[in-house]
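Provenance

Sequences were taken from public entries as deposited. Structures were produced by running a predictor on each sequence independently, with no templates supplied. The record for Pyridoxamine 5'-phosphate oxidase family protein from Phormidesmis priestleyi ULC007 is shown for reference.
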Amino acid sequence: MLDIDEMGQKEIQSFLQQVGYGHLGFIHEGKPYVMPMHYYLEDSDIYLFTTEGMKTHDIDANPEICLQVEEIHDPLHWRSVIVTGRAEQLTEQQDIDRAMPFIKERSPMLSPAINRTWTDAQGRLEAIAIYRIHISEMSGRTTEEVSSQ
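Predicted structure for Pyridoxamine 5'-phosphate oxidase family protein:
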């Protein structure tokens, strides 16, 4: 039988800091929708960096989100964290300026894209959007031998 342990809050924070990507769940046209997404953890805040489009439209309409992050070594050795919360798009320049350094630090390849405006294949102007997740709940499970509960 597989032994599954609850992860402690410190272990969850460390895990989220380490991984940096997961699956973002939100409501699209009244139905659950999940997509892969990079995130950025700074202290206890989670930030999402994306371009405006379907995802931002849906999150603005219903900001309740779920972020699932996992690490699977094999069927017997894995960790998984679920974060639920409310997404708030950053609109104040001071908040954006505060978030950009750690976003760039975590993903240096974003810098050229951040510094210019571009168009997508359909000729639409792409604009960046940054969201802060106000965390409601975090839980994690692991099959690892030692948990830091």
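The domain at 5-114+125-141 is CATH 2.30.110.10 (Pnp Oxidase; Chain A).
The first strand starts at residue 5 and ends at 6.
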